[in-house]
Amino acid sequence: MRIGEIAALVGVTTRAIRHYHHVGLVPEPERRPNGYRAYSVRDAVLLARVRRLTELGLSLDEVRDVLADDAGRDLAEVLEELDTDLARQEAEIGERRRRLAVLLAAEPGETEPLSPTLAALLAKAPDTASPTAAKDREHLTLLDVAGSGGQELYAVLGPLAADPALLALYERLDALAEAPTDDPRIPALAAELVAAVPDEVFAAIPAEGQIVAGFQEALLAEYAPAQAEVVRRVMEAFMHRSRG
């Protein structure tokens, strides 16, 4: 068969076949004396397989890996693996669409793309106009996006987020917005904030989620000087407790 004939048989374009040859996905057949490629039935079977795999959504690099791994294996085994992978992708897409549906159903500005577990955690927190409470929400969102959060951590934070006493601590931190860094209220507030966090929270924090110097500096820069001093003391205490 010539290239046009095998292309028509398999249902791909001659341009695609030439590209498969160019990238080394499909070997070029021998040429006739007149220079035309002579394709065999075996070539047609291989091209049909490439077409089927690409229609399943695999990239050409993935198709190459599948074809390389197929040596000595039954087609059924390969297809079972493909089906398992597609099922995983389907579940991931379903979860992404579920989260997208929540965003589409919300009023503008009412919500943001959070993981379901973080959204459930924030739903437990009482309403407040505290600027520092808003900052904490933003920091949790960053933690969520960076993948440093998780269901276990959010679960142990639940009681803390729902505790009205935490709002009083936020309000005291808000009150330091115009205070100097030697304000006498700083040590007591820092100690109370540290004491308010249960030990279970530190046990749930993943090791890779520990604070790095660059992030700590950027975080402290968001606060007024006296507030930053409180946060610095709290962070140092947290790091000490997490190491313990």
What percent of the residues sit in helical stretches (DSSP H or I)? 55-70%
Globally, the shape reads elongated
Number of helices: 13
Secondary structure tally: strands: 0
Main β-sheet: number of strands, strand sense, barrel status?
none
Terminal CA distance reads 73 Å
- For the residues shown, what is the average pLDDT? 80
Layout of secondary structure:
Elements: H1 3-10, H2 14-22, H3 41-55, H4 60-69, H5 75-105, H6 116-124, H7 131-146, H8 151-162, H9 164-174, H10 185-196, H11 199-204, H12 213-220, H13 225-243
Helix pairs in contact: 1-3, 6-8, 9-10, 10-13
Please describe what this structure looks like.
The protein has 244 residues and is mainly alpha-helical. 68% of the residues lie in helices and 0% in strands. The protein has 13 helices and no strands. Helix 1 packs across helix 3. The mean pLDDT is 80.
Task: Pick out its properties.
mainly alpha; 68% helix
In short:
The chain is 68% helix and 0% strand. It is an all-alpha fold.
